[in-house]
Structure formats: C-alpha cells, structure tokens
Amino acid sequence: MLWLKTFHILFVMSWMAGIFYLPRIFVHFVEGQAAGEQVTRLAIMAQKLYKFMTIMMMLAIGTGIWLWLAYFPIAEGMGWLHAKITFVVLLLVYHLWSKRRMQEMQEGHLDHSGLYYRWANEIPLLLTIVILILVEVKPF
Fold first, then answer.
1. I need a surface site. Which of 67, 71, 83, 91 has the fewest CB within 10 A?
2. pLDDT tens per residue, range 30-61
3. What does the alpha-carbon distance between residue 55 and residue 16 come to, in Å, rounded to a whole number?
4. Has residue 137 got a pLDDT over 90?
C-alpha cells in the first residue's frame, strides 16, 4: 500500500505543478499580447502543459480511488476524507476552468487582465493547503 501511496503523491505533485504554472502562462500571454509581442509559442506551451497535467490528474485520481477502496473498511473517523474529496472536486472544476481559458488562448484571446490570472493562480494553492491540512491533521 505504501508504493501506491507514493505514486499517488507523485502524480498529485505533477498535477499541481501544472495547475500552478498554467495560469502564469495566461499572464504572460495577456501581457505579451498587450505589448504587441509574439505569443503563439505560449499557446503551444499551454496546450502541451494541459495535456501533461490532465494525464497526471487522471493518474492521481485513479490512485486516489484505489487508496480509498483499500481503506474503505475503515470508514469510521474518515470524515476528513469526505472533506478532502470535496476540495479535490473543486480542483477538478479549476482544472476544467483552465481548459476553457487554454482554448480561448488557442483562439488568440483571453478576456481578462494579467492581474486577474495572477489572482486566479492562488485558488489551487488555497485548495491544496486545505487538502494538506485535512490529510495530515485529520481534524474529524
């Protein structure tokens, strides 16, 4: 079970690396476009990063479900897990939001400012902090 947990952590870290970096590409795209710079390479980078992070997301969720099923008989005192799953679902929503922004970028436009994407970049960090607290502290 420890190997499975190790791979789950690896896949989550890889997914989070992508989910933290993609909005930074959005910032550079918006600001570069406003400055009249060539930004097509950023759109290509975003598309490749999104594909990578989607694969990592699927592997993270797959190993997470596997771990959940392995520990399911120990359902008592696992309220923290249900809360964690709720926040993971919110991360999935953010992942899909990122996909839509990436598609807009492929079309040559993003409709918000660099500051907007800088603030949007903080959402997955806050969700990750809550998830880590739930997993490590297990408050309920």
1. 71
2. 999 999 999 999 999 999 999 999 999 999 99
3. 12
4. yes
Give the domain extent around 131: 2-137
Name the pTM for this structure.
Answer: 0.92
Contact 140, 79 (CB under 8 A): yes
The DSSP letter of residue 133 is H
- Which tokens sit at 13? 């870290």
CA distances from 53 to 12, 49, 60, 114, 119 (A): 9, 6, 10, 22, 20
| In contact, 16 and 47? CB cutoff 8 Å | no
Task: For residue 96, give the amino acid letter.
Answer: L
Residue 138 backbone class (left: φ over 0; alpha: ψ -120 to 50; beta: rest): left
Cα separation, 19 vs 40, whole angstroms? 20
Total domains in the chain come to 1
Tokens of 42: 């950023």
Q: If we measure between CA atoms, which residue out of 101, 100, 97 comes closest to residue 127?
A: 97
